[in-house]
Amino acid sequence: MSEGTKDFRKLFPTGYIPIILTNIFLAGETLRKKTPNEIENKLTRRLGAKMNQLPEFRNGPFSLHLQQELPPSDPDSDSPEGYVDILISCGYGSETYFAIEAKRLRVRSVKGKMDAGNDDYVNKGMMRFVSGQYAPFMTTGAMLGYVYDGDLQKACSGVDRYIKGKIKELRLLPPEKMKRSSLFATKGIFETRHYLTKRKFCIYHLFLGV
Fold first, then answer.
1. pLDDT in tens, 105-120
2. In degrees rounded to 5, what are phi and psi of residue 74?
């Protein structure tokens, strides 16, 4: 792809990100699972409906899309690149967006066995940003962890331990771990930074007790 072709793409505005993440917390305050191991797509659908009632989404500038199909890099392909749980656009074109992937954490099975969910969170969530499957032209995205037993501290520490075991695969930049985000003084929002082929990438991490 020529440099001229890339020129039309704008980065998602950094100043919008704190607004979006704060609104996720606002909408998530009343978000609760309906069954002990409800699938995350149902939670995300209800979260999206709550977010759409908030002023920035109801009146703009944001548009929220759930389970959004991502177009393939090859325009002649018949298969999508994938589906992102939450895609937020801001009127800058189809390839400028803020992507959020949601995963379940600390879920108990019907037999009572605890599934920490860290493997899916990292390998089927974070890695989709690192590989370029999600947000291939952007420099930011987010992971959203639904903490089913409500223990946010254990969820955060569990994800962080798993991340530290995948430093090379995740292409982590120093401090090579999940740290509290510099964008937020009080909210429990974390970030990891990654070096990709032609860009650096920041993944924000949010955890909601459901």
1. 999 887 778 999 999 9
2. -95, 110
